[in-house]
Amino acid sequence: MRHASLSRRQLIVGASALAALGPTGAVLAEGTASGSLTYGISLFDLPLTTGQPDRGAGGYQFTGLTLYDPLVAWELDVADRPGRLVPGLATAWESDAADRRNWIFRLREGVKFHDGSAFDADAVIWNFDKVLDAKAAHYDQRQASQVRPRLPSVASYRKLDAMTVQVTTKAVDALFPYQMLWFLISSPAQYEAVGRDWTKFAFQPSGTGPYRLAALVPRVRLELTPNPTYWNPKRMPRLAKLTLACMPEDLSRANALLSGSADLIELPAPDAVPRLKGAGMRVTGNDTPHVWNYHLSMLEGSPWRDLRLRKAANLAVDREGVAALMGGLATPAVGQVQPSSPWFGKPSFQIKYDVDAARKLVKEAGYSVQNPLRTKFIIPTGGSGQMLSLPINEFVQQSWAEIGIALEFQAVELEVAYTGWRQGAADPSMKGITGGNIAYVTSDPLYAILRFYDSKQVAPTGVNWSHYRNPEVDRLCDAVRASFDPAEQDRMLARIHEIVVDDAVQVWVVHDTNPHALSAKVKGYTQAQHWFQDLTTLG
């Protein structure tokens, strides 16, 4: 069956994205879902189940795109190329030619929530209020804190008719549909049924997604079963039951797979990979737009305002050594995006391993091994997307010590790190902190470039944690949002990337390959080139 998808050109000119997904309200055929699998995930607790998952982009594959749907979705059933925007709960969207700030979303007819209530424009408006209107009776701060920074362009929204919604952006923003990937729709009727209590809703969630929640034991496991009336036949689950089991320790995940208590795991420990392969396990990975890096404070008083120190910190990292530490499950990063990206450009500053050059720059800045720069970073102890968080951080710490940078860590749980990342370097909670490590998705222009370097995105509005400000970058960011020509956008994005690499705004370390290890019991799994993954492909 053909699956409609949007090229970036179709997206930007506002052409209709009509779905070709078959009839809505499709019924799961008797016996088509069978078997069960247990998936060992690297989180110490399960992401929020109320509609907007926490714990970063990784949470979306677990409790986001399983239980819920966005209006605009990402193509996740291909492995040999990057995905594209495709219809979700909206069959079409377009920018109004009369006022490009207005985006019109045509909603999918016949879709039901898990509780049997109907999906419509009222439900969409209710969900916007849930996370953007602090005065709404059903406003949920936990969900809002996750998705509000992902929707920085939204100025207002309104219902046009029963199945049409208009969202108005603060300014013309040709990239706005990418923000809608992160906005998931939960059931207003179920919220009422559980007594208007989000805590109760978490244990009895209702979305429109391909799976339903069968059981939830916090910090232990979550059991998912198929939604028999899911609207998209292509994403019907193949499994009768999928269990997500919290296994935050690298070794415990590998042992669970070897013992048969898990059938697949994410982020296998690199030193366990030979043993896993020897036991007949399949280790998979893919090109992933995802970067593991450090954000550096540009606030007054921060040592990182000195370009020499920022360049030295980049030159002191042996990225091939980090990739080796990861057992080849990562690739060196020489910028925010891979050199193959159309947004890479031609930076003048070549990020490479050059200890002598790094030591010279540190000396010019007034420091040395005998008189080191003492600085403190906030880092996560682990979690989805962080790979071997502590070992990699310690590797960098030792490398910097050799050039005269004495790095101290404030190690915190992943969600605490995310919260600090969203609050920004100027937040009181960051007192004494001059940098931080967070890994994240870089799959589209907004998520790779604009949200980190545009001064309009200074945290907490966006995730320009550093408070980086560059007039040329700001002008280019405005021009990217105003342009509906993809080729012109690519040229400007490449120029932005050249500037920020030459400014050494961050310390870029490696790109993740999002590795997984699977037992022979797993017959089907498509690993997309994204941090989002579609667990309905498991069989």
Labels describing this entry:
539 residues, alpha+beta, seven-stranded mixed sheet, six-stranded mixed sheet, 17 helices, globular, disordered N terminus
Concise summary:
With 539 residues, the protein is of the alpha+beta class. It has helices at 8-13, 58-64, 121-132, 141-147, 176-179, 188-193, 198-203, 250-259, 273-278, 307-315, 319-325, 355-364, 389-401, 414-423, 445-453, 471-482, 486-502; strands at 36-41, 72-74, 85-87, 90-95, 102-107, 154-161, 164-169, 211-217, 221-226, 241-246, 264-266, 282-284, 290-296, 330-332, 373-380, 405-412, 435-441, 506-512, 516-518.
Protein architecture, described:
With 539 residues, the protein is of the alpha+beta class. It contains 17 helices and 19 strands. The protein has helices spanning 8-13, 58-64, 121-132, 141-147, 176-179, 188-193, 198-203, 250-259, 273-278, 307-315, 319-325, 355-364, 389-401, 414-423, 445-453, 471-482, 486-502, and strands spanning 36-41, 72-74, 85-87, 90-95, 102-107, 154-161, 164-169, 211-217, 221-226, 241-246, 264-266, 282-284, 290-296, 330-332, 373-380, 405-412, 435-441, 506-512, 516-518. A 7-stranded mixed sheet has the order 8-9-10-1-11-19-12. A 6-stranded mixed sheet has the order 14-18-13-17-15-16, with helices on both faces. A 4-stranded antiparallel sheet has the order 4-5-7-6. α10 packs antiparallel against α12 and α16 (471-482) packs antiparallel against α17. The protein is globular and about 70 Å long. It starts with 7 loop residues before the first helix and ends in a 21-residue tail after the last strand. Residues 1-31 have low confidence and may be disordered.
